[in-house]
Each structure stands twice: as C-alpha cells, then as structure tokens.
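Sanity check. The docking grid for adenosine-5'-triphosphate depends on where the pocket ends up, so I'm generating a full predicted complex first rather than guessing from homology. Inputs follow.
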Amino acid sequence: MGSVTVSNKKSQTTSLNNYNNLATAPVANKTESVTTNNNCNGWIGGEGASAMTSAPNPKPKIVYGTAGYILEDVPHFTDYISDLPTYPNPLQDNPAYSVVKQYFVHVDDSVPQKVVVHKDSERGVHFRRAGPRQKVYFESDEVKAAIVTCGGLCPGLNTVIRELVCGLHHMYGVKSVLGIEGGYRGFYARNTINLTPKCVNDIHKRGGTVLGTSRGGHDTNKIVDSIQDRGINQVYIIGGDGTQRGAAAIFEEVRRRGLKVAVVGIPKTIDNDIPVIDKSFGFDTAVEEAQRAINAAHVEAESVENGIGVVKLMGRYSGFIAMYATLASRDVDCCLIPESPFYLEGPGGLFEYIEKRLKENGHMVIVIAEGAGQELMSEKMQTMNKQDASGNKLLQDVGLWISQEIKDHFAREKTMAITLKYIDPTYMIRAIPSNASDNVYCTLLAQSAVHGAMAGYTGYTSGLVNGRQTYIPFYRINENRNHVVITDRMWARLLSSTNQPSFLGDKCHNKDNVEEEEPLNQLPNGDLSDDTLKVKKEISSI
Ligand SMILES: Nc1ncnc2c1ncn2[C@@H]1O[C@H](COP(=O)(O)OP(=O)(O)OP(=O)(O)O)[C@@H](O)[C@H]1O
Ligand SMILES: O=P(O)(O)OC[C@H]1O[C@](O)(CO)[C@@H](O)[C@@H]1O
Ligand SMILES: [Mg+2]
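Predicted complex below; grid placement will be based on this.
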C-alpha cells in the first residue's frame, strides 16, 4: 500500500504503520468532512490526546491515501488515552495458530467498500480489516467483559453469545464475562450472570437469546455508570439499528469520561436493513424457514380451484426477507415489499394480476412483507399512529388486510369464486436456532469483535464487507437504512421470475417522478453502481 495521509489542519502526513500512535501526535481538528448525519459518533483521532481528556467535537476519523484511497477508521484507546501499556498477543503462543502464516492482520490492511470498479475509478472508501493484532491493550486477567442483546429476536443470537464467551476465554484467557439480562435496561435494573464456556456450551442449539432482550429503556448515563461501577472494560452489544445507535451513545459517553472501555457493536437484524454490511446473521436461516410457510401456502392453493395462498413475512421497512424467500421458492407469483408501492384496482393493479394468474394457472401464491402497503391501508382504514417502547412504528397487519381486500373484491365482482388461505409465520422465522452457515458467520463476527477490543479498538461495529470481516465506525452503520433498490438487478430478477406487474405504470418511464437519493458511489463515467441508485416511493399518487 502506498503512503497514507491523515488529513488535518497542519497537513501532517503519517504512515498508517504509525497510526495507532496518533494520540501522541499533535493532530488538530480535521477540516474535511464526510457525508454523515449530525448524530454521527465517529471522531477524528488525536484530538485532545492527553490522558483522561476528550474531544470537544467528535468527528469521523478519516485517513486519505493515494489514488483516492479513503480509510473510514474506527476509534482507538490511544486516540484519547495516552501512555497505555501494550502486551504481546497471547495467540502467538497458541498451538492452534502457531502454524498459521501471517496470522496477525497487518496494520495497513483494509477492505474496500465497493468491489465493482472501472479502470479509472478512485480507490474509494475502505474499512479497517478485522482480526488479531500483534499487540493487545489488555492483559487477560484485567478484562471484565459484558454482553447484552437488545431489540427483536433473530436466529444466531445465542451463537454470537457463545462465541464471544469462548473466543475471549480460549483465545485470550479471559475468565470474567458477564451477561447483562433483558437488554439495555438490564445494565441498571437487573442482575448479571456469569458466562463461562461450560454454561454456554449448548446454547447455539436454541432459538432466542439466553440473556433475554427488550425494547426501550436506553439511558446512556445510567448504563455507563453501571459499566463504571461494575469495572467492565469491554462491552459487546448485539442488536439492530436502534441498538447500534444506543451503542454509539454509550461509546461517546465512555470516551467523554476517558474510560478504557471498548464499546463494540455486533449487528443483528432479521430484516437485513443494516447498511454497509453484506448481510446480517440469521437472515439466511429466516429465509430458509420462510420456505416452509410458502410451501404450505402453495400446497393449499394448488389443491383447490382458484386457490390463493397469502404469506406475510417480516420486514418493517425493508423487504429483503420477502424478496429472497420469493427468489428461493419459485412458487411465488407476487411479492409485495415496502420499497415497491402497489395498488389494488384498475389496469396494472393487483386484482387484475390475480385474475390473470388464476385464469392461466388455477392458483397463486402472494408473499407480502409486513411493512408493505401501509400507506394504502391507512388510506382505507382509520389508523392510529402507535409506537413500540423503542419508538418504532407499530404496523397494521397487512396480511390480514390484503386477504380480506382480495376476498371482498372477488365477492363483489363475481368474476370467479376463490379460496384464500392466509399464513402468518412471522415470529416462527426468527425464533429458531441459526442454520449451519449462519452459525459459522456468527462465529467469525464474534471472534472478530473480540480481536478488535483486545487490540484497543472501540466505537465500532464488527461486520462483513465484501466477504471480509471489518471494523465499521458507528456513524456509518447509523446514518441510513439498507433497502431493496427496486431499480437494481436483484428486484428485476424477481420481477422476471414471478412475472408480476411492477406497479409503476407509465411513471417508471418518467424520470421526473423518480426521486433519487444521493448517488454515493457514482462511477467515473457517470454510471451508477448497482446498489447506489436508490429510487424512493414515487407512485403513491397512482
Ligand atoms: N436513537 C437511539 N439512541 C439510543 N438508544 C436507542 C436508540 N434507538 C433505539 N435505542 C435502544 O436500542 C434498543 C433496541 O432498539 P429497537 O427496539 O429499535 O431494536 P433494534 O436494535 O433496532 O433491533 P430490531 O429492529 O432488529 O428488532 C432499545 O433498548 C432502545 O431503547
Ligand atoms: O414484535 P416485536 O418483537 O416488536 O418485533 C417485530 C419487529 O421486529 C423485527 O423482526 C426486526 O426489526 C421486524 O421485522 C418486526 O417488525
Ligand atoms: Mg430496528
């Protein structure tokens, strides 16, 4: 890798090899900014480098290199605490690793966010590669780790807990690991449990989380007080978008107080709506389990004349589960997701398509994500805007609603007699243990998280980017949500597999009606990479 510059007012140039020593360098406020929201919790390293002081204005920690190389780095203890002792990584004496060449990750290793490039492309954004480092910032018996799970359930939660405990124990000799019960509020309202490799040995075979979980109840100060009171110095926080925002707030407070506490996020969401990462753990398991419901709907539908099977799947704001379950099944004739608004009546509408499909095939299967059609439903029904304890919008049951609308339509129109069966497996797909590939994924995520904390990194989410484990600054995880891009090839593949209407009507040819999000990764010739052209809802007026 060529020389890499840490940009700052004094244009100081620092090799990445020295990057961990930045805290002792007189680095001033960074002048460039990156696209991020005001709540970002990353920060430029080196500010206020003296011990027990904190940066007044945290900014993302960005390193620039040659040919447009950008490293969106994660915070490190040395950014705000000076004179920390380091120790050789105990893995170097571990017989399992002694035969592995270059087992330790090189300090300059990073992973590109975009792998599709043109010959003149800039190198673009990179994230720090995860993995064990030669030096660690904790002695084994100094570590007191804590693990907490927050938000909804997801297959694999127990596997991550197990692998954190076993990873800390077996790789780094850490004996003290606490489980925080019942989500964030467990830090200050519940007891903790001691987690040992023995007591977590079998938990990956069970669904749910042995620690319990909750929504709401995040009180940053109380949580950090509890971390301080209990002497915890590594916190592993497993949860979705809300949880990662909470983790960013905890990190900020920890840093403000100048504590040597690693705050590490492990992204969890069955909806796969966390940005940057390839996919979230448990997603594959959920898609696989959804097949059982789709199969049942198909069997019911094809066994009667004009049979319709409707399956509702999870996906509050993003329709990934519905999209992948549809693509995997091949029995689905129509997939409805929040990102692709649809309409019922008239030419090109859902009712017209159902009639056509029944005439052609005698039966059909519809998969609908729980967040789809919410605006349509609210137009037709008087709905209350309710929220859960975390402030997430509580959704109406779109599966029940659409089933009734279809039945009413055919009863009214008398074009054909239909039989409709509605299957709602929503909680069944997330309350199960993770499958084999998710178990492996959870193991890698957990071990990467542990390596990073031991190496003194903090304020990051451990995540898979282009097939490599990385450390991603919280602000990147928290700045937006991952959506199905309906102008992307994946959605086109689905449309061509189901043959359903796009519900875009003429408007899909009218660029004025397409509201595009900022094309973050525009390629040099003006083309947009697959996953960056984001088209928002634009047919609500149809
Ligand atoms: N902006 C925020 N700042 C601090 N804490 C938050 C924030 N948003 C949510 N939290 C806390 O994070 C926890 C989990 O949030 P939430 O219930 O939204 O689930 P999640 O982590 O998004 O998971 P999922 O949506 O996949 O079920 C809750 O305890 C909530 O109080
Ligand atoms: O009923 P709960 O536990 O609030 O969870 C429901 C929500 O959790 C998720 O599984 C994850 O966010 C969503 O798909 C769903 O809307
Ligand atoms: Mg969420």
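Relevant for the grid: Residues 150-152, 183-184, 214-218, 239-243, 245-246, 249, 269, 390, 392 surround adenosine-5'-triphosphate (ligand 1) (CB under 6 Å).
Also worth noting: The first strand starts at residue 4 and ends at 6.
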